[in-house]
Amino acid sequence: MKKEKKKEWFFDCFCGTQMVIYTEDRKIVEVGIERDKEGDLLGNIYKGKVMNVVPGMQAAFVNCGMERNCYLPLDEGPSQLSSYDGYAGSAAKRELKEGDEILVQVTKLPRGNKGARVTCGLSIVGKTLIYLPNTDFLGISRKIVDSASREALLKEADKLREAGQGFIVRTAAETVTKRHLKTESEYLKRIYRSVLETAKTAPVGAAVYHEWALPVKVMRDSLGGVEGIYVGDRELYERVLHLARMRGDVGEKKVFLHKGERSMFSEFGLSEQIYELSKTEVPLENGGTLVIDATEAMTVIDVNTAKYTGDADLESTVFNTNLIAAREIARQVRLRNIGGIVAVDFIDMAEEEHRLAVDAELERALSEDRSKCRAFPMSELCVALFTRKRTNNELQSFLLKPCPHCTREGFVLSDLYMAMRLRSDIIDKFAEGYRSVIVELNMDLMEKILSEGYFTKDAEGSWKGKRVYLIGHRTYHEEQFTLRGDNAPVLTLPPTAQLLY
């Protein structure tokens, strides 16, 4: 009998950022990141203004107050409809003209030179239902397989909607009562009425509805089965505890506040795993490697045997490496939240039976992803394509930034991620008994840390009575820093040293 994996969540808040990590047997499976002051655009509703309509593209471009105008397809309903079984009524054709003010919802985040993608088919997401206030659609999760349950739930959802509206029944609805569904449907409708009321006086570009903050979304959408939820920040702990109390399948006894002296991610062995995600090369368990290269149009993954030579013939060696690679590729795209088109260059296999087996393994591994994936048959050149729905910012945007030294064709670790690493090392020095920590680092990074107030919360809380000195150097590379602890009553420091806050 296959042993069940130990599933755990880790929540923390630092450097003005909320971070959540999901692990299985302490191996990271998913990472979610959200800046406190920005939040996640995905799912937000904006009051927009149509700037121009392009009939040839069947699209309009809408000013939503972002850096670039948003792309609005005119012949498409809400993006999530294809992910659910159901039926839709006839959709009214939308006629837009330049200058129209409309409500739109972000369905795809801006990336590179492309603006966000939006829809007029608004949706308000709850734990058991998704409310579609202006889309005639009745749908249900494909994960609910019992035919009697599906029929009963669809019938109940149909009673809850009015003409021209719709509901999607989510997987969590299978275990709740009719009364719960009715209560949640009324709540979602109140939210929409509030959106309409806010939009009446809101200026163009204003967000009239914000999707839930990261911890709320995670607790809302996860379906239980976790052994523990660990939180590294007391304020965040209180919020997660409150959410857990409302869920019968989690409960407050499974929520723990991390009280160790070291940072929580370091304590549980997660910091190094996060750092590994900044690298393009991924080792495979048999000595082979993956090389992950993100481009503007797609992500390309190359499979190599590297150090693995196998024990049998070349074909068997290649086949075994490709099978292992297929499983790791599915894990990496989920872990790094890679979306869009992914092309995989597997190692050439001569036998069609082996190509079909690797195809099947990749499709099976992708089926475990909560984001929708669609795999296509492998070509004779052993190149496989699949698509994955992007649900948030790719992890790369948190870990890396364009390198200023190579005409921005490469990447270095981002300021925010470097601040996170420094914070973890500073906490470890305090845990070793030091009262003062001296950090020498890149000058631009130091100025960013001070101007953004990355460590303000720590300095006003657990670091009170302790001292952190920052010494900036113009000659230091963006990723270079040294850090030492000191307990001397009088420190000898250069005049450029700055006491943190």
Describe the structure.
The structure is a single chain. The longest helix has 24 residues, at 178-201. It contains twelve helices and 28 strands. It has four domains: 7-38 and 215-272, ATPase, nucleotide binding domain (Nucleotidyltransferase, domain 5), CATH 3.30.420.40; 45-210, Beta Barrel (OB fold (Dihydrolipoamide Acetyltransferase, E2P)), CATH 2.40.50.140; 279-388; 412-499, Hypothetical Protein Ychn, Chain: A (3-Layer(aba) Sandwich), CATH 3.40.1260.20. It has 501 residues and is α+β, with helices and mostly antiparallel strands. A hairpin with a 5-residue loop joins strand 17 and strand 18 (289-294). The strands form six sheets. Strands 4, 5, 6, 8, 9 and 14 form a six-stranded antiparallel sheet that branches. A six-stranded mixed sheet has the order 17-18-19-20-22-21, with helices on one face. The chain has a five-stranded mixed sheet with strand order 3-2-1-15-16. The chain is 28% helix and 28% strand. The model has no long low-confidence stretch (mean pLDDT 86).
